[in-house]
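Morning F.,

Quick status update on the modeling queue. The single chain you submitted on Monday has been processed. Sequence for confirmation:
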Amino acid sequence: MRCAVLVISACLLSAASADSLNVRFIGSCPTPGNAVGVFVNGTHVYVACETAGLRAISVSDPANPTEVGYCDTPGSAQGVAVSGNYAYIADGNAGLRVISIADPANPVEVGSRDLPDWAWDIVVSESYAYVADHTGGLRIISTADPANPVEVGHCNTHIVYDVAVAGNYAYVANGDSGFRVISVSDPANPAEVGHCATPSTAEGVAVVGHYAYVAAFAAGSRVISVSDPANPVEVGSCETPGNAEGITVVDDLAYVADDGAGLRVISVADPANPAEVGYYDTPRSALDLAVAGDYVYGARGDAGLRIHQFYGEVGLEEGRQPTLYGSRPATSFIRGVLVLGAVDSRQNTAYRAELLDAAGRRVLDLHAGANDLSRLAPGVYFVREAQAQAQAIRKVVVQR
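Structure tokens below.
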């Protein structure tokens, strides 16, 4: 295989196509049914695939995800959550299904619970499963004995599509009825305590700290303050070009599954002024997503599982040296060989640098001239160069 040689320079060398920004495609795995729900757990991703049930996919090599096992379900698998050695499936008209994934190659159903309507999604917190059951509202099920899940309470909140749980509250995406806050301090008696209208159908919800983030279909993503759960108030929003179906938030980034416009990445560092900082636009359905590190695992309907990587704002704090490199560090896209300068002539010192991964861990020492990176996994890395007065950080994207 021939390797391109690229010298780091002060300019941004853009290898991205016109339909992406700070996001690149890593790998994919087809599924026999429409992939509509996804949960990442260590080196495995579990995908809810409607009539094809639960699929277990190894992502130990994100560029080559591989299905290793599956378990059919009697209904239409819509959502999945994992806790311990069990996957919990929102299985459409078949309610809740509990599947042992102690051996991901041989997942086996061990328990179930019928529900009154259509189970859309599920989240597991401590020893309870919270199920968004469409017109059946929010159902709370004890999972203390996974083989015998028992419903302990419910709250009728019109149509429920998605649910997130934090502390003593469940936060519900309530379709045309907007966003609801439900106290679950007593799981046997959940009660609605607050409500906030959304300009379009509330399809997905995530909660971090004092804010809830809602995927509001044609109205994009909405940021709602829940510092007072009885009076949730929208404080910011960011439109998306498609229909926002699912949302998850990690650190200061919201990742949106935007049906018709792919993956959108939104900075929520300032909740009152969320701003898009990355995207990967594809014509295929984007229905749900999960994030681990800088990898985004997307349920993409008939396109199966798709894995992308956001490389815009990851890892360690990037140094800013305006007199040397401009206000932001350069990004270089390489395949195989990285060429670095030999000497800092201003100080007449030998060149010293090291390569760090996205988490800031040292991968290897670098030297002047050509450095062979062909054995590294594709992804985002940082070159930390030792200089006389400061350390400069430069971003490197290793591609296949």
